[in-house]
Each structure stands twice: as C-alpha cells, then as structure tokens.
Specification:
Rossmann fold, 2 domains, six-stranded mixed sheet
C-alpha cells in the first residue's frame, strides 16, 4: 500500500540480522560490528526505513542521518570502537550530546589507517547512502579526503572536519590550536630554565596535526635563540619505541607530540634510572586520562575534546542552514596544565 511505513522487522529480515541487532545499529548503540552496522544501515536506507525522534523542545522534528566517521589505528583496540580511544572517546561524547539535541541520527563508522596514515579501508556503503551531513574526525592525508568526497558523490552533503584543518577542499573545520599549544608548552619549559629541549612524537609529515605541533615547538625555540637538543619522530603511535634514551640524555627537558609519547618517556626514564622531573622534565599534549594517573602526574596541554564534538555539530548545523556561506574554521585554545613532570631549574644548572 502506498505510503506504508517499513517496519524494523522488515529491515531485520532483509539484512539477515535479528530485530535486536537492527535496533542497536539504528540507534548507534555498542554491540554491533562495523560490517554488520553498515549492512543494516544500507538495507534500511534501501527499503526507505525512517524513524523520528523528539528532539530539543519535544517538537517531533524529523531525524537527520549524519555519518560520524573516526580515523583509527589499524592495530589498536579502538579500530572498530572509537569509544576505547582516550582522546576520541570524549569527542564522541560531545558529538552525541549535541547531536541528540539537534535531532541527528549518528551513523558511526571508522577509517583504519596504517603507520603512514594511509587508509586501509573506507566505509563505502555508509558514504554511498543518502546523508544529511558528515562529521569526519581525525587528521587525514589530503588524498584520503579526496577519496571520501568522491565516494559521497554529487551533490556532496555538508562535511565538517573534526580535529583537523582543511587542506584546500573548502570544508568547514573544528580543531584545537596545535601550533599555538606546542609553542606555549615549549615556552613553559624555557621559562622553567631549560635551554636543552628535545622533541619526541609521531611522524609529522604524515599527519598535519603533528606538523603543526612540530612547527610550534621549533618556532618557540627560534624565538628564544635556541635549537632542538634532540629530535625523534616515529612512524606510528606506538609507545614501545627505541631511541628515547638518546633524548633523555641529550636534553634536560622534552616536549612530546602527545601524551602517549610523554608517558613512554616516563617509562623509559624509569628503565634507565632517570628521575622525572629531577633529572629530566617532560610535557605532553592532549590531557588524556592516563596523564593524570602517571607517576609523576604529567604536565600537558589540555585539548577540550568535548568542545570539539559539540562545536562540530554546531558547525554542521550552520552549514546545513546556510549552505552558501564561506567556509569556517573554529579553533579551540589548548590550555597549559601544570602537574609534576616539569621542574624549575636553578641558575647554576
């Protein structure tokens, strides 16, 4: 009969899944694999399945289908679940909070990448279905964004980059001030009396965010007449890297590209019998929960991860409402968190 609504059971039968699994997938709940979720969502859209929610002020607004796609590391536990990532789990929470108020049905997907930030898989089924918008979370290579836009087809739905800067595509973006935050962290070490300062982090040429952090680090040293005492980059986010001891020995302090590498420095110091911060100071970036529990607690640059998620939804709403507006770039400040891993040197040290 014309106009008949497709039922959840019909979606379950057509996608060869149980009604309970379909319900979880359609409500963006955990417990469903990425492949099964994408199959169910594609089937639901092919059948014309729709549901409505009561949003905001109980106005019965129609639900918008928004693809929320996270970059994940291919060998990490968060490959299929961004909720396990100590950084992106908070971005996910921010998006969910704001998205619920904005009547957004969030379709969760992931793009696993290798050590050089090349995508190993793209959620083609998700990107090929009718979408009202896309939130692309994580800093990708430019050619990866090209491929994603190609899969979205024409007309391309509104796309907002989250925790990433636009690389010439004319897309809206919401990111933290990576360059300014790295500059402030390095200046904090300099103001604490350190002149031999090293850097440890992921390979910056493959990830624009870390390129910005390296640029801020180098600029701060240059502005104070200094050069890096040591500089080590590694091809992935792994924390079991060799060579960290060379930085510990060459410098009195280290700025690390993120908290994972800062925590790796603390572990390496313990293994080498080097006391933090008495013999070496360390500062990280991101302020993940592990930084607070470290011994000693890690000084770091805090990124407001919840704000990234909330602002991303607001930017997407803006783009949906005013599609012809000029691209916008929202940048949140990184804030210095002083804990116990940086020591003020005396004049004779």
């Amino acid at each position: 009969m014309a106009g008949r609504r497709v039922t959840l059971d019909e979606v379950a039968n057509a996608s060869n899944a149980s009604s309970a699994t379909v319900s979880l997938a359609l409500r963006n709940k955990p417990g469903v694999s990425r492949e099964t979720r994408e199959r169910i969502l594609a089937t639901a859209h092919a059948l014309g399945y729709q549901r409505t929610i009561r949003a905001g002020r109980d106005n019965g607004a129609a639900l918008r289908n928004i693809a929320l796609i996270f970059r994940t590391w291919s060998d990490g536990p968060e490959r299929s679940s961004p909720a396990l990532n100590p950084f992106y789990s908070w971005v996910l929470t921010g998006v969910q909070e704001a998205g619920n108020d904005a009547a957004m049905n969030l379709l969760l997907g992931t793009i696993p990448v290798d050590a050089e930030n090349h995508p190993l898989d793209l959620p083609a089924a998700m990107l090929g279905q009718p979408l009202d918008g896309v939130l692309l979370v994580g800093s990708h290579r430019r050619e990866t964004v090209d491929r994603i836009l190609d899969l979205l087809g024409h007309p391309t739905p509104p796309v907002v980059l989250v925790d990433a800067l636009d690389q010439g595509h004319g897309l809206d973006s919401v990111s933290s001030d990576n360059r300014g935050g790295a500059y402030r962290a390095t200046v904090h070490l300099i103001e604490s009396g350190h002149t031999r300062i090293g850097y440890v982090g992921p390979r910056s040429e493959w990830d624009p965010n870390f390129g910005q952090r390296v640029a801020g680090f180098r600029r701060a040293l240059h502005d104070h007449g200094l050069e890096p005492a040591a500089f080590r980059e590694y091809p992935d986010e792994g924390v079991g890297q060799t060579g960290l001891d060379s930085v510990l020995l060459a410098a009195t302090a280290s700025f690390c590209g993120n908290d994972d590498f800062a925590l790796a420095m603390l572990r390496e110091a313990v293994a080498r019998g080097i006391t933090i911060p008495d013999q070496h100071s360390v500062i990280g970036f991101d302020d993940t929960r592990h930084s607070r529990d470290a011994a000693p607690p890690l000084s770091t640059m805090a990124v407001d991860k919840l704000a990234l998620g909330r602002l991303a939804v607001q930017a997407l709403e803006y783009r949906i409402k005013w599609p012809e507006s000029a691209p916008i770039s929202v940048v949140t400040a990184a804030q210095l968190i002083q804990r116990g891993s940086v020591r003020m040197l005396t004049r004779d040290e």
